[in-house]
Design a protein that fits this description.
By secondary structure, the chain is an alpha+beta fold. It is 57% helix and 19% strand. It has helices at 3-35, 43-79, 160-187, 195-225, 230-256, and strands at residues 84-102, 108-121, 127-131, 136-137, 143-149, 154-157. The chain is globular and about 75 Å long.
Length: 275
């Protein structure tokens, strides 16, 4: 099958799924509105329901594939001793393009982006040239820490890139789990009284904790891997140690907190006088 035809089939499939979920939500909402004597869902409201659902459904398979590849990379880094550590130096950029960004003063500026091509020398003394699997700002980083396996010609970038990727994946998975849970609960008339509490705790422990731990790990990583001056090493160590009590406190509150489930609460029995 042609690649273009396959991509079109996938896009149409995801579009059909998102439209189907939106239809079920609107139908359920119209039934509830009819029981309460309210107006039905209009076209504009339906559109605003469909947009986030289509984004959720569309991003899910790509994030799952990215998560699987990231888990594979982490497993290889831990278990496969054939991956050797090298410092790769950027020699040029390929597939360059202009990206529009805004600075702190909300002024628009254009940044040239491109895929970095690096060179590194392996143990045999042979110099290799490879393109890294991401785009970055041109003339940004001059070198990257990588792991390379000669037998399979695989490269894993072990810089902050992999840390940012892991944090992004965890944040998306937390949001996706609660989104799909909310859709399922709404369509099946599950009790949603405690959904807001679970969502708040999930966002706190899943996103805030992940970002805090990622920042702490990044600071420690910079101290041991990057060539920093003594002053910047002291600053990184100070902030990393300052984040440890925050992480510990989040873990403590996570295990102490109790979200009450209305289905598991004991019902109080009241008795009238004379019985």
């Amino acid at each position: 099958m042609d690649e273009i035809v396959f991509n079109r089939i996938i896009v149409l499939l995801f579009l059909a799924i998102s439209v189907g979920i939106t239809y079920l939500i609107i139908r359920k909402g119209n039934r509830k509105a009819k029981d309460k004597g309210k107006a039905k869902v209009g076209c504009l409201t339906a559109f605003f329901i469909w947009v986030p659902i289509s984004l959720l459904v569309g991003f899910t398979p790509f994030i799952l594939a990215l998560g699987a590849s990231t888990a594979k990379e982490l497993y290889q880094l831990v278990s496969d001793s054939d991956f050797k550590s090298y410092t790769a130096h950027v020699v040029r950029y390929e597939n360059t393009y202009m990206s529009e960004t805004k600075d702190s003063n909300k002024r628009t500026r254009y940044v040239e982006m491109g895929t970095p091509v690096v060179t590194f020398t392996i143990e045999s003394g042979r110099e290799l040239e490879r393109a890294l699997p991401f785009a970055t700002e041109v003339n940004g980083e001059s070198s990257y820490n990588i792991r390379y396996k000669a037998s399979t010609d695989e490269i894993i970038v072990t810089d902050v890139y992999i840390v940012v990727k892991i944090i992004g994946l965890i944040i998306f998975f937390v949001i996706a789990i609660f989104a799909y849970w909310g859709i399922y609960g709404y369509l099946t008339d599950r009790p949603m009284k405690n959904y807001g509490n679970y969502l708040a705790y999930g966002l706190l422990y899943g996103i805030f904790l992940t970002m805090t731990m990622g920042l702490c790990a990044g600071l420690i990583y910079a101290v041991f891997v990057k060539e920093l001056s003594l002053w910047w090493q002291v600053v990184c160590i100070f902030f990393a140690l300052s984040l440890l009590p925050v992480i510990i406190q989040i873990f403590r509150s996570m295990f102490r907190s109790k979200v009450r489930d209305p289905l598991k609460q004991k019902r109080k029995t009241t008795y009238r006088k004379g019985y």
